[in-house]
Amino acid sequence: MKRPVPTVTVQRLPVYLQCLESLSAGQSNVSSDELATLAGVNPAKVRKDLSYLGTFGVRGVGYDVEQLRFQIRVELGLESDWPVVIVGVGNLGRALANYAGFGERGFHVVGLFDADPTKVGTSVDGLVVEPLEDLHDAVRDRGATIGIITTPAEAAQDVAEALAVAGVDSILNFAPTVLKPPSGVEVRRVDLSTELQVLSFYLHRRRAEA
Amino acid sequence: MKRPVPTVTVQRLPVYLQCLESLSAGQSNVSSDELATLAGVNPAKVRKDLSYLGTFGVRGVGYDVEQLRFQIRVELGLESDWPVVIVGVGNLGRALANYAGFGERGFHVVGLFDADPTKVGTSVDGLVVEPLEDLHDAVRDRGATIGIITTPAEAAQDVAEALAVAGVDSILNFAPTVLKPPSGVEVRRVDLSTELQVLSFYLHRRRAEA
DNA sequence: ACATGTGAAGCGCTTCACAGCG
DNA sequence: CGCTGTGAAGCGCTTCACATGT
Predict the structure, then answer these.
(1) Distance from CA of A106 to the nearest CA of B (A)
(2) CB interface of A with B, residues 63-82, below 8 Å
(3) The whole model's pTM is what?
(4) Average model confidence (pLDDT) for chain B?
(5) Is A167 left (phi over 0), alpha (psi -120 to 50) or beta?
(6) Suppose B78 and one of A90, B73, B96, B164 were both cysteines; which one would form an S-S bond, judging by CB atoms 3.0 to 4.6 Å apart?
(7) HSE-CB for A11 with a 13 A CA cutoff
(8) How many angstroms separate the CA of residue B69 from the nearest CA in chain A?
(9) Is the pLDDT assigned to residue A163 strictly greater than 90?
């Protein structure tokens, strides 16, 4: 049955997809229990999550691995092609440009931009780094819908505005700052040190108890 | 009043901290409304979150910026020193080793390790890359409590086991795979493409509606 | 027999609304 | 008066438990 997919479920679908891809090529079927163990969650949660995508499990048997992979990809829009531009070609920008996991999921890097003239013209993963001034026309001409910000924190807000004006729909911000979202643009943030701080909280707490 | 801090609150504390650090140096006071706007959340949520740390807001006035920063840092354990080792010196490993945000929060990189002999001996941010064989002794001798995995997916599980045996308490996994947590070790995962897939879901959905 | 799909109960987080206090 | 701190209500997610289907 088709109901709205809860946001937490959307966030777990990539995890299930990753688990399915880690199964041996010979395995054609998987149960909610097995998938739950792999993903580190409760089996009932797996079944409920998957039920939002439709009912294609087989009672007494489980789910067809290939079909399930496809359904998740469709639901996440990974069967579409998403042209992506990356702004900020430091180590992180380069890591993302080279990251194989993007291409496999329909995300294709169509432009790399940097404000630093010494970086412009250098080559990363087959792409030539372009100056920031060319961002607007490149986004328009290449139909980029997603912008990834990997600049220093100071530059991030300006880059976000520029991306919005150029016409991207969504921004993924890796810069360690909270962006004011330009109107009409969906912004998500990934802070590399947030998770480390969460770990720190629990370590700290464990020590305080001991 | 001291009650257990909800997990969602723990995850938001780093965001508040980032917002506080972005305030101008002259601003000594901040209201829950202002902080909420910066962080992009509801003001009541800010007040409730902060109330778990104690009651040090001033009614009619707001919170003292400096004191609030300190309290959040204490709660997250950022006033302690956390020796960290990074395994996997690709672009992502280098980006993390160079990342200023770590040092400011008490995370000090005390070792870089890689299986690739051509990388061993090279220098990153003042640290010399060491071979994987030296991981165990290094973790023990330097008292590392946190391990960061930035290897390819295939190597991640073995590295996690090695880190556990060597004696780390927590692992932050950037490899695109779901780890089976070694016993006694807290594992958190960061998947660089998960957030991109979440964006894709909403873009995809928006298009389907239009 | 066995594993899915799902009402319903349980639980935790969010938000409201206002009492409390400077 | 203004803003914090917090009961209480509201909402959504998680988990249980079992009916359902093969």
Answers:
(1) 9
(2) 75-78, 80, 82
(3) 0.95
(4) 95
(5) left
(6) B73
(7) 8
(8) 14
(9) yes
